[in-house]
Here is the input.
Amino acid sequence: MADAAKQDGNTSMTRDVIILGGGLAGMTMALSLAEHGITSHLVEKHDAENMLDSAFDGRTSAIISSSWNMLKALGLDVALEGLGCPIRRIEVREGSEGKPLDFTPDDNALGMIFENQALRRALWDRAAAHAAISTHMGHGVALRDYGAHGVSATLENGVQLTGALMVAADGRASPTRKDAGINMAAWRYDHRAIVTAITHERPHDNIAHEIFFPSGPLALLPMHAAPDGKHRSSVIWTVAEKDGDAMLKLSERGFLTEMQKHIQGLLGDMSLAAPRGAYPLGLHHTTQITAGRLALVGDSAHGIHPIAGQGFNLGLRDIAALTEVLVDGARLGLDYGDAQLLDRYAGWRSLDTLMVAAASDNLTRLFGVPGKLPSLVRKAGLAAVQNTPLLKSIFMDEARGRSGELPKLLQGARV
Here is the structure.
């Protein structure tokens, strides 16, 4: 595949927006803008072949109902039809015993679990075919420049791209954020997430399980059956940093035996259905998500513990809000890099991202306190929520992304 699809010939090097980072957030950002008539350069340092490797690596994303509204509004529902496994109920436990706190909606599913590779492929196919998006793959950024009247990015192959606004979607270690001198608060949890997938004897019944242990939570997320018909679930298992390497070195049998000790045979006999990967866990939150002609979205702006499955969904809320701000600004004749627009975006997103980050951090710390007394207190708290319909409703709205001032895309409408 060409390094820069649609880059030459009838495509100008000047576009409305330059998006740095071609992962899930970057591709969604480009598509969201394109569907509203805003052109963009989409830059990704990795080549398309590596980005679109079809081998399942165990990574999945939970797409909550408001995020699914957005993906449908962007025309992705046809490509993703049948690929997401619905979550009909969430069960939360303190340890492997005791009655769980359950969240079961009266109407639609709480969300769906997709393999990341399926999301990447659907986004790429639609973005690569869109005339409003110029893709530049396989080359990093050598130089970024922010001027009074526009921005530019010079790629490592010497190609210079220009636009009115730069959007950083280049991940937790965002070089664009660092280059702009934007500070962030960050800390490590001294934990690692072991990510994989399993096939199992018993059906999951579309239930997502979140089981809390002092060493960290273990999440079991329902997936569609494997090609051979076996029941399948995604696993995100938080373990102490000191145990991370050992968990990866265990044989398949040893790993599954250790897991069975924690889940007490919840899914019956199990086998690994994907490689095991380990990812360091931490939290980071930037002091600002905008600067002169620069906006941050997704992990470049904030990264949270996967305890609530909100990471990618939080990025989609950024993208929906920024799209709406830019479209509204264009209707008023404003420059896409206008400070008023960036201030509106920053104000819109600041409280929500801070609250989600704080909630995930507090949950991580609360359930990580060892001892019988803290465990009894947590179990009492779960029981109190279970028996209080109003509290359950509030938590369910949060889980589905229905609280706060929702951008139009998250309501399933174009801007």
Summary: Residues 17-185+282-411 form a domain with the FAD/NAD(P)-binding domain fold (CATH 3.50.50.60). The CA atoms of residues 318 and 349 lie 7 Å apart.
